[in-house]
Amino acid sequence: MIPVCEPVLDGRELKYVTECLETNWISSAGKYISLFEEKFSAYVGMPYGIACTNCTTALHMAMVAMNIGSGDEVIIPDFTLIVSANTVIQTGAKPVLVDVDPRTWCIDAQRIEERITPRTKAIMVVHMYGHPCDMEAIVKIAAKHNLYVIEDCAQAHGAEVNGKKAGSFGDASCFSFYGNKILTTGEGGMVLCRDRGLAEKMQLLRNQGFTEPRFVHDVVAFNYRMTNVQAAIGVAQTEMVEEKIAAKRRIGETYNELLANAKDLTLPYEEPWAKNVYWMYGILVGDGFGLSKDDLMKKLREKGVDTRSFFCPMSIQPVFMNGNNPAYPDVSVNNPVSVDLWNRGLYLPSGLGLTRAQMEEVATKLMECHTS
């Protein structure tokens, strides 16, 4: 079976982790945590980094630090992982759903303003499958309406907008280092920001609100700490970030070449202003292909090729359609692009260790499904 993704640990991960074990610095203190924060934030171009347990807690912590809560609204894309909606709801605020661009699969900047109300506090964007959102337009909208911008960069390490890194536009940018991400620590995340006060607040929130004297607390906070062992892996991964981004780009370009003449498939798009890092190589199955998305995925699995479906939009999630929580998003919205992506979208094996021979096999077996 050719897997969708596997982590590649081809740097100094073992050396740095061994040092943690040999020195007993294995918990949430140790030199690698601050080193990882410094190296990764510098790579993206943001002054502050706060390492944490995952991107979910990064998003939640950022919104809490921004005082987003009950009575507020946060604009999110309809087509996204449910984390976007869940973290907003966990603050007490309400997610407001906006459809996505049919080419980039990212939130449609031209549709954001129509969803802004007096209760809107922030715009949360999600850089989808490696392609960045139209951040220049989104930042202008946010400035016009005095809104925070939160970038979910879980899938977009190294993506760029006109030469500027995704994650360097917003008030806070949140990254995932899960095992299938371009940079991985197994599990892990980080929030980047440019405001010192916001950074200090998130550092406090991450660590149960501990200050001096210890065990006397002024805020309700969380245990969102990353371990030194995870951070050691992150430092080694960050040292290899340019090579990993280049490898992802090569995978995307190779699939583009192999599938250039494929009928009834829509391949990933790259805006002229964008650098797509092809975190996952997604395709849309056309009506003329002869198989539905689900049937194609089943057939490919029988042929030894693993795939994953695109995300299910928030507007058709049973938990929100059947629930009566006032913080749940309004699912009566009409977001046809998001629904269409769910109905037709899947992604192919895209791991950093993928070889050209494997990609050729994937492409061949994909097209065999078309003609069978």
UniProtKB/TrEMBL annotation:
UniProt record, GO biological process: polysaccharide biosynthetic process
Q: Give the reactions, separated by semicolons, that this protein catalyses.
A: GDP-alpha-D-perosamine + 2-oxoglutarate = GDP-4-dehydro-alpha-D-rhamnose + L-glutamate
Q: What is this enzyme's EC?
A: 2.6.1.102
The N6-(pyridoxal phosphate)lysine modification is found at K181
Q: Establish whether keyword Transferase is in the entry.
A: yes
The molecular function GO annotations come to: GDP-4-dehydro-6-deoxy-D-mannose-4-aminotransferase activity; pyridoxal phosphate binding
Has UniProt tagged this entry with the keyword Transferase? Answer: yes
Enzyme group, top EC level? Answer: transferase
Recorded family membership: Belongs to the DegT/DnrJ/EryC1 family.
The name this protein carries in UniProt is: GDP-perosamine synthase
Q: Which organism is it from?
A: Desulfomonile tiedjei (strain ATCC 49306 / DSM 6799 / DCB-1)
Lineage per the UniProt record: Bacteria, Pseudomonadati, Thermodesulfobacteriota, Desulfomonilia, Desulfomonilales
